[in-house]
Design goal:
heterotrimer, A mainly alpha (309), B alpha/beta (332), C mainly alpha (319), A: 309 residues, mainly alpha, MetI-like fold, 0% strand, elongated, disordered C terminus, B: 332 residues, alpha/beta, Rossmann fold, 4-stranded antiparallel beta sheet
Chain lengths: 309, 332, 319
């Protein structure tokens, strides 16, 4: 007694494809996004392989190579055969330091983003689903957190807890979750009005079940997009904290503290600014473009930064 | 006959506040009706008369502002969500929008299996088997249980909704405009399916629609709704042949007739004005501003829903001056 | 309208109060020995004991908090042992610098952002639009301090070598002393502060304006023969700017953050520089003071923006 699907015959070939697979296919066709994804992959590999690279080059990030790395006058040496990116004021290899800096940036960026997203989703779904008083309180709270000068408060927190990588991660997560929470709340509010939620309730489903089984799957797409777009913000935040001396402490190299050093030496050593700066720029650009591409793949209706028409 | 009564709604009302205080939208304002085991009660009315709100009240998807609902001998008016859960096994709903009533991010098998999961009736293999049985029963290919709703047509999606509703063998299903969003040719298929299931499973339906011909086809009894209230209720045949309320008569006369000759000969009852706002309904009989037969009494006294004239106890009308023939309403 | 204002004010006060609690707990309750940290690293045991007594740290927590609030109400923000100066005078000395920087920067970023946004919206997909898209993408990806560094390198250093001393590399000259020099020293910092945010705002303006330009009433205006220029500026811009205004309210906090970074890059003696220095010297009272003052400004700015928004859009008032 089966009736033939009225779904267009031409689509017969894609029958059985989940929305996820369709999105992946769209993403693969997007050249800009693919290049960005490749870049991100390269960065991850570089971060993972940092000790290997150090071994291959023969230098490590903390050693001061006074003979080869500094001029007789004691000034840093520019890019040459031995030091791909030159040396810093202490004769350390800038190239290796940039490579090791990748680890910190990616680690802090990704971990703090994941924490922020986890917290934001929990709060956002709770606020959006239960509405009423819970929602008012939570929404207002998120608004307040969002409106505050992150950097200043981050500085205050660091002043009490002392700078370290853990503190950086926590601080960044604490100031990022509200943005996620707000978006998730908005999405949840609109999902809640859909008829399939009413249908689930008419079947006798409890709130928890509805949230997990019916609401969350519809949040996956926007959450993925937002996560990808939040990572570069977190990376920039970490770099800023390091730049001000509030983040990871020396001698561990981060792009931020390397750029902070460059403030004093850029007049004699332009490579201080260029290489860490370029690394930072490329990383954030890659994640931003990737996020844009992911957003387009998951929801083709949104306006793209580089729309080609 | 009382042991036969499955659902009894008594003076049900549901008001929605427009703003924090002030006037309210009186979507449902004093509805009483009865549904017996195995019967189909048709509920007919135009858009905005409160049919969908009433449907949600009957299934307790929303709280009532006033009134009682007794289902299978149990008063479910004020039960909490938790207490209502076992009731939901017997009282189900089918929704109007085939595109909105299924979660686009879930597989169809999972959607149909929801009742089994929620009530802990079946797990794993057993659940899948039963889901596929249901799919087959409603006319879907059981192999497709892993597909997403987007891959099905409108009519098929309604079938999925039906499968989900009958999973736990309910006693009563409230169908809120189940075929209104479908093409006419598909409507017939779904209606026939519902018909077959009724015979097979002994289901009772509350069948809500604005389409008179569909309601006539499926219902044993019909209730007509206007502006939040029931204005007439009768066995289907009687209602269509001998409508007593002016509104019912007008509705029936407006229904399209296929035969052009018959259509020409038909007398159209024309109603003046628009449907008033449910925020401030007219005093007395709500229909009086548009009624061709309205008189002074109608503006002050709201008529009760009772048997009029020589009608049997099954034909109730809420009108001071019930209609005997359409000629009374058509201007000369 | 008055009720709305009252509610916003009350909420603002509530927020400030909650912040005072958070700050108090963070700085006076949580640390291991607040007296030692406040007295500073170099302090002797005697000084620490003196500080402890003076700050009333040997009293129960709630009493301490009460004193804290009372002092705040009187405008007493504590005493910086490191600088041997009341926090209040420290902050007020540096406030003009930060204000010059933030207000100038905000004006610049609005002007820049909105005008680029308008230009892009009026000529979609033209060279201007594509160039601005690149600008936006760069702005979204660049940290403020990097922009500052690059500007320092290009517009200060390289020009300096070439003999052109147009933009100084740092330092601050008060307006009262010499308006010209004041502005000259602030150009690079303003640009730094503005460029990154201008990018976001230009995108926002572009999107919003495009949306409004597509609406029916604009089409009507055009079909009446009104020049495109007037259509954009007189009719469309007003509604298009509403989201920009909202965003501004949210961004007051970000503005302050940008100021902190910029002051540190260009060596401007403002609150931002003070804050960072105080972390290194562990001068907690100063940080507390800055946080409280900044919170006050942010809350005030938010209320002001809300008010402006309520004037523009009456629907907001009913909330």
């Amino acid at each position: 007694m089966s009736t033939t699907p009225l779904v267009a015959r031409g689509e017969r070939g894609i029958a059985g494809r989940s929305p996820f697979r369709l999105a992946m296919a769209r993403l693969r066709r997007d050249r800009v996004a693919m290049v960005s994804a490749g870049t991100v992959l390269v960065l991850v590999l570089v971060a993972l392989a940092a000790p290997l690279i150090a071994h291959l080059v023969g230098h490590d990030p903390s050693t001061q190579y006074r003979e080869t790395g500094l001029t007789p006058a004691g000034l840093p040496v520019g890019p040459n055969r031995h030091f791909l990116f030159g040396t810093d004021n202490l004769g350390r290899d800038v190239f290796i330091r940039v490579v090791y800096g990748t680890r910190i940036s990616l680690l802090v960026g990704v971990v703090s983003t994941l924490l922020a997203v986890a917290l934001g989703v929990v709060v956002g779904v709770t606020a959006g689903y239960f509405q009423g008083a819970t929602d008012t309180v939570l929404a207002r709270f998120m608004d307040v957190v969002l409106s505050f000068p992150f950097l200043l408060f981050a500085i205050a927190l660091v002043s009490v807890a002392g700078p370290s990588i853990v503190v950086s991660v926590c601080v960044i997560a604490f100031f990022s979750w509200a943005a996620v929470g707000r978006i998730v709340r908005g999405q949840t509010l609109s999902i809640r009005e859909r008829e399939y939620i009413a249908a689930a309730r008419s079947l006798g489903a409890g709130d928890i079940r509805i949230m997990f089984v019916d609401v969350l799957p519809n949040l996956v797409a926007p959450v993925i997009v937002y996560t990808t777009l939040l990572i570069p913000t977190a990376i920039v935040f970490e770099a800023t904290l390091s730049f001000l001396g509030m983040g990871v402490v020396p001698p561990t190299p981060t792009w931020g503290n390397m750029l902070s050093d460059s403030l004093q030496y850029y007049q004699v050593a332009w490579w201080f600014i260029l290489f860490p700066g370029l690394a930072l720029l490329i990383t954030t650009l890659a994640f931003n473009l990737l996020g844009d591409g992911v957003r387009d793949a998951l929801d083709p209706a949104t306006e793209r930064l580089f729309a080609e028409e | 006959m009382t042991e036969d009564v499955l659902l009894q709604a008594g003076d049900v009302a549901k008001y929605f506040p427009l703003r924090q205080r002030g006037p309210q939208v009186r979507a449902v304002d004093g509805v009483s009706l009865t549904v017996h085991r195995g019967e189909t009660l048709g509920l007919v009315g135009e858009t905005g008369c409160g049919k969908s709100t009433l449907a949600r009240c009957l299934t307790r998807l929303t709280d009532l502002s006033r009134g009682t609902i007794v289902f299978a001998g149990r008063d479910i008016t004020r039960l909490s969500r938790h207490q209502l859960a076992p009731v939901r096994r017997d009282l189900q709903m089918i929704f109007q929008d085939p595109y909105g009533s299924l979660n686009p991010r879930r597989r169809v098998g999972s959607i149909i299996g929801d009742p089994f999961a929620i009530h802990g009736v079946a797990e794993g293999r057993d659940r899948q088997r039963r889901v596929q049985e249901l799919m087959d029963r409603v006319g879907l290919n059981p192999e497709h249980f892993n597909r997403y709703p987007a891959e099905f047509s409108g009519g098929q999606r309604q079938r999925i909704g039906v499968a989900r509703a009958i999973a736990l063998r309910p006693k009563l299903i409230v169908c809120d405009e189940p075929v209104s969003a479908l093409d006419v040719s598909i409507q017939a298929q779904v209606i026939n399916l519902l018909d077959d299931l009724q015979d097979e499973l002994g289901l009772a339906y509350v069948f809500i629609s604005h389409d008179l011909s569909v309601v006539r086809h499926v219902s044993d009894r019909v209730a007509v709704m206007y502006l939040g209230q029931i204005v007439e209720t009768a066995p289907a045949r009687q209602l269509y042949e001998q409508p007593r309320h002016p509104y019912t008569a007008a509705l029936l006369s407006a229904a399209p007739v296929a035969d052009p000759d018959l259509a020409d000969r038909r007398r159209r009852v024309l109603l003046t004005g628009d449907v008033p706002s449910p925020v401030a309904p007219p005093t007395g009989c709500r229909f009086h501003p548009r009624c061709p037969k309205a008189q002074a009494r109608c503006t002050v006294e709201a008529p009760a829903l009772t048997a009029r004239e020589s009608d049997a106890g099954t034909h109730l009308t809420a009108c001071h001056f019930p209609v005997h023939s359409v000629d009374e309403l058509v201007p000369r | 309208m008055l009720r709305f204002l009252l509610r916003r004010l009350l909420f603002g006060l509530l927020v400030l109060w909650l912040i005072s609690i958070a700050v108090f707990v963070l700085f006076f309750v949580a640390p291991h020995d607040p007296a030692r940290t406040i007295a500073g690293r170099q302090a002797t045991a005697q000084t620490v004991a003196l500080v402890r007594h003076r700050l009333g740290l040997d009293q129960p927590v709630l009493t301490q908090y009460g004193h804290f609030l009372t002092r705040l109400a009187h405008g007493d923000l504590g005493y910086s042992y490191y600088n041997s100066e009341p926090v209040r005078s420290l902050i007020f000395a540096r406030l003009p610098v930060t204000l010059s920087l933030t207000l100038g920067g905000a004006v610049l970023w609005l002007l820049l952002g909105v005008s680029i946004g308008i230009a892009s919206a009026r000529h979609p997909r033209s060279l201007i639009d594509r160039a601005s898209t690149v600008f936006v993408l760069g702005g979204l990806s660049m940290p403020t301090f990097l922009v500052g560094l690059l500007l320092l390198y290009t517009l200060f250093f390289r020009l300096h070598i070439a003999g052109i001393d147009a933009f100084p590399g740092g330092g601050y000259v008060p307006f009262t002393q010499s308006p010209a020099q004041w502005a000259q020293h602030l150009v690079l910092p303003w640009l730094t502060l503005a460029l990154v945010s201008a990018a976001t705002y230009s995108r926002l303006t572009r999107g919003s304006l495009l949306e409004v330009l597509g609406e029916d009433y604009v089409r009507t205006a055009r079909s009446k023969g009104i020049s495109e220029r007037r259509v954009v500026y007189r009719h469309a811009l007003r509604s298009a700017l509403t989201p920009v205004v909202t965003q501004l309210g949210i961004d007051v906090g970000a503005l302050l953050g940008g100021a902190i970074i910029t002051e540190n890059v260009f060596g401007l003696p403002g609150l931002g520089q003070l804050a960072v220095q105080s972390v290194t010297t562990q001068d907690l009272p100063v940080i507390v003071g800055i946080v409280l003052v900044a919170s006050f400004f942010v809350v005030a700015a938010n209320i002001a923006v809300d008010l402006m928004y309520a004037v523009l859009d009456p629907r907001v008032r009913r909330r």
